[in-house]
């Protein structure tokens, strides 16, 4: 596990980036993803970007102080779109209108490790949530007859760095993407099954998951538990 500080407002956003080698697609406006009222979670999608830009890798210093540093707050606003717009036109892929529902592996985020610390932690290959994301992504692909994606350590390191950049206050968009494609999410999303369900039900993110040209993937997730609630940043990178 890795930890660093930064407080996060309760917000749930999704960001999807389509592959650079696909065909042109019409941009979608930001929209809320409908979820069950019982979860009391909201989700927000943003348009995809084609370019690869240098990663934001700011690393906040550990501390027990629950007060957020001025430069370490992510951009919350539950109803606002991310501040930075995609730099190029989105791309289009042929995707089924209604994705086939699959059985998701749960993969709980280990919030007990973060309880009472007021610090951010990150998952790695020792956590069930890490592998559950891969299982769920591959189950979604299998439902449309695609081959599974192999887990790649380098892509996971890139995904982890993307989550860290969000925690450090970087813009929640694809301007810092360093891989061929990525999908992101933020908010109180406590399991791999929840985040993968959001991505599956978002057309732009689903298009990335079922891209037949991808062969490998990486997973990153940073999480924090405070008196106000639980928070997460998720990223899956593709190549």
TrEMBL record:
Any Pfam family: CAP
Protein origin, superkingdom: Bacteria
Organism whose genome encodes this protein: Subdoligranulum variabile
Lineage of the species this protein comes from: Bacteria, Bacillati, Bacillota, Clostridia, Eubacteriales
Name this polypeptide is given: SCP domain-containing protein
Regions of compositional bias (Pro residues) in chain numbering: 63-79
Stored InterPro entries: CAP_dom, CAP_sf
Signal sequence bounds: 1-20
Keyword field: Signal
Keyword Signal attributed: yes
Domain spans labelled SCP: 135-238
Region (Disordered): 39-95
Keyword Signal: yes
Biased composition (Low complexity): 39-62, 80-90
């Amino acid at each position: 596990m890795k930890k660093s500080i930064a407080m996060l407002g309760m917000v749930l956003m999704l960001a999807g980036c389509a592959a650079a080698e696909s065909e042109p697609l019409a941009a979608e406006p930001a929209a809320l993803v409908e979820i069950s009222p019982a979860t009391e979670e909201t989700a927000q999608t943003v348009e995809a970007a084609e370019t690869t830009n240098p990663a934001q890798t700011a690393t906040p210093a550990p501390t027990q102080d629950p007060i957020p540093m001025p430069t370490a707050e992510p951009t919350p606003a539950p109803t606002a779109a991310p501040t930075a717009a995609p730099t190029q036109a989105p791309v289009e892929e042929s995707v089924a209108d209604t994705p086939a529902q699959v059985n998701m592996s749960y993969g709980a985020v280990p919030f007990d490790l973060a309880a009472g610390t007021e610090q951010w932690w990150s998952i790695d290959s020792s956590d069930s949530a890490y592998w559950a994301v891969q299982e769920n992504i591959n189950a979604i692909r299998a439902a449309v007859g695609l081959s599974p994606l192999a887990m790649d350590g380098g892509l996971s390191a890139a995904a982890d760095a993307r989550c860290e950049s969000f925690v450090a206050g970087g813009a929640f968009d694809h301007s810092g993407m360093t891989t061929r494609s990525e999908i992101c999410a933020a908010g109180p999303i406590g399991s791999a099954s929840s985040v993968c369900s959001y991505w599956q039900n978002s057309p732009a993110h689903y298009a990335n998951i079922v891209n037949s040209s991808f062969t490998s993937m990486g997973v990153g997730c940073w999480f924090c538990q405070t008196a106000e609630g639980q928070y997460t940043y998720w990223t899956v990178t593709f190549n």
